[in-house]
Design a protein that fits this description.
The structure is a homodimer of 358-residue chains. Chain A is 34% helix and 27% strand. Chain A is α/β, with parallel strands linked by helices. In chain A, strand 1, helix 1 and strand 2 form a beta-alpha-beta unit. Chains A and B meet through helix 1, strand 7, strand 10, strand 11 and strand 12 of A and helix 1, strand 7, strand 10, strand 11 and strand 12 of B.
């Protein structure tokens, strides 16, 4: 049995709880340590999460200590976005691979630096977008490649929204920490899915839809946008901190469409589904629509949160064995997603102006 | 038993077949006559439709003859939009009530004239938007009025698309007959639903989304748009002649959402449904979403195509009995829908400029 890939967690953010749980479920992965700026907080967090998940975490009282632990292969960073560059630089200096919480950066310049420092240090970069590691995406991709039942992609509409109390003190509403607000948080997933739907081609141009809402501090709390590709494909999305939890995906082709109503976080962690409709049409003197909706179910051996870690660990194991090079797909996809996201922000800032991307 | 309300049909358009069938199913309604510019065509059509539906139709060889039949109460007009004003004027002159196929007019000036001539003549105007007469809409309205389970309306996204062969010679692709293309045809329904969702308040402004497609003759074949209300509510829609048949509606509130995937033409004509999700949220350490999707089914005594006719006939019966005044809701809703539709067209024509509506 090969050595597990050991993960250290930088910070005690809430999201780290489910990621540490996933570390205990993922094969070939070990939850090794957690750090906070205070040892006491790190110890309390390690104990709590340990009880809930069985993870045996070393607690460090500073991020630096964790980074200098030679046993750690990968650092998972659920830090506020404004701190990412600094800590990626420090992690890369210690030759730690980096699993970064999204959004990875606030500007493309920061993103360039983050990716360059990882590449130069020979460490793998990945952002923690879980959905893309879910085998459902491969099953949907196969369905959309059917010329007969789906045809050509014309449009992808997605939405992701939940209610974040605006006075909760959540970092996602603090312009000093996560200035991209709902766009950086939930919008990240919509844009990622849109690029995925278009085979990771970049759109030619993007426009923020009118109707953006912001907090009193100027952080975006709701926004929609339209992305247009050079060949005429279109994607739209809506993301918000103000609406009831909801997450729709609707992929429209010339011969059929595909729908799933749990874009980002599956209804169940052991199984998820999508619905296809192939060659639908009017029947019965045009008063009914042929109902060919078909659900395809995809079973998950481990939750998608664990699949990210397994995919990451497989790359790290390959690197450690000297068998594999850095996997450039992950930094590329992350970069493209941020590029489009910032173009949407730019469009909003410029009064819903059209922003050229390619 | 009261006299039935008698309908005459101006023209032998394909859509008239299902409307005449609906006349045979609607209570208090009689399919009385059909006319074409050629008697032979009208006779052949009357015979064909009679065989299929049991309707016993008088065939007239000119529209004028039909309009002068004193037995006819209502004229149903499935004519190309460019002919509407002329024939509404002639029908009103004969004191015939008018059920008009959509889009009712190509300009607001035409629309004003159509509505004025009907009002002045004391005849009822209604456009043949069937969905709104479906009792499902009342059931959804009740669901969205639940403060606890739905909350406040934030957004409504709809889409309606089907594949219309671009060289089919269909009037909806002929700029001389139906210059509003997919926007006038399928877009009409999306905009109507959007206004319905917002309790018939007019939006403050509309913007066509980038990515509109047109035929070689310049008729819109695909378009999306964003509508914004003064209080921040947003609606978006996508309509197309280029995609597989599909019709989505997604109404988002602060505490829940409502979804139906047969916006305009129900899957079945005797029953239709919608799905509500109330107070959805993350569960199980944030790795699953609470699945509270609930389907509500609404049974239909007669198909929605017949319900329009019954609603119309009830107004006409009331007018004939001298008990009721003209019902102003129908011309108002039709006018508002066209007003928004033309604002979207204007936005597209002006390079996706924002167009003020109110």
């Amino acid at each position: 049995m090969a050595e597990p890939v050991r993960f250290g967690v930088l910070g005690c953010a809430n999201i780290a709880r489910k990621v540490i749980r996933a570390m205990t479920l993922a094969e070939g992965v070990e939850a090794h340590a957690v750090s906070s700026r205070s040892l006491e907080k790190a110890q309390r967090f390690a104990e709590e999460v340990g009880k809930a998940t069985g993870a045996k975490l070393i607690a460090y009282g500073s991020y630096e200590e964790l980074l200098s632990d030679p046993q750690i292969d990968v650092v998972y960073m659920p830090l506020p976005t404004s701190l990412h560059l600094e800590w990626v630089q420090k992690a890369a200096a210690q030759k730690k691979h980096v699993l970064l919480e999204k959004p990875p950066a606030l500007t493309l310049e920061e993103m360039d630096k983050i990716l360059k420092v990882c590449e130069d240090a020979g460490v793998q970069y990945m952002d923690n977008s879980m959905w893309i590691h879910n085998p459902r995406m491969e099953a949907i991709r196969a369905a959309k490649q059917s010329k007969e039942n789906f045809g050509q992609v014309l449009r992808f509409d997605s939405s992701l929204h939940f209610h974040l109390p605006l006075h909760s003190g959540d970092i996602r509403l603090d312009s000093a920490l996560d200035a991209l607000g709902a766009l950086g948080d939930v919008g990240w997933y919509c844009i990622g899915h849109s690029l995925w739907a278009m085979d990771w081609d970049l759109p030619q141009r993007v426009v923020a839809q009118p109707g953006t809402k912001t907090s009193k501090g100027g952080v975006i709390t709701s926004i929609g946008a339209t992305l247009v590709w050079a060949d005429g494909r279109v994607a739209t999305f809506y993301c918000s901190f103000e609406a009831a939890w909801g997450q729709q995906a609707y992929l429209v082709g010339t011969n059929g469409h595909i729908h799933w109503n749990d874009l980002c976080i599956p209804m169940r962690e052991d199984s998820c589904a999508f619905v296809t409709s192939s060659k639908p049409g009017l029947i019965n003197s045009d008063t009914e629509v042929s109902n060919e909706y078909r659900e395809t179910r995809v079973d998950l051996r481990v939750p998608q949160e664990a699949l990210v870690l397994e995919d990451f660990a497989a790359i790290v194991s390959g690197l450690k064995a000297g068998k594999e090079a850095l996997d450039s797909r992950w930094p590329e996809r992350s970069y493209k997603t941020l590029r489009v996201l910032l173009a949407v922000k730019d469009s909003y800032d410029k009064g819903e102006a059209e922003i050229r991307v390619t």
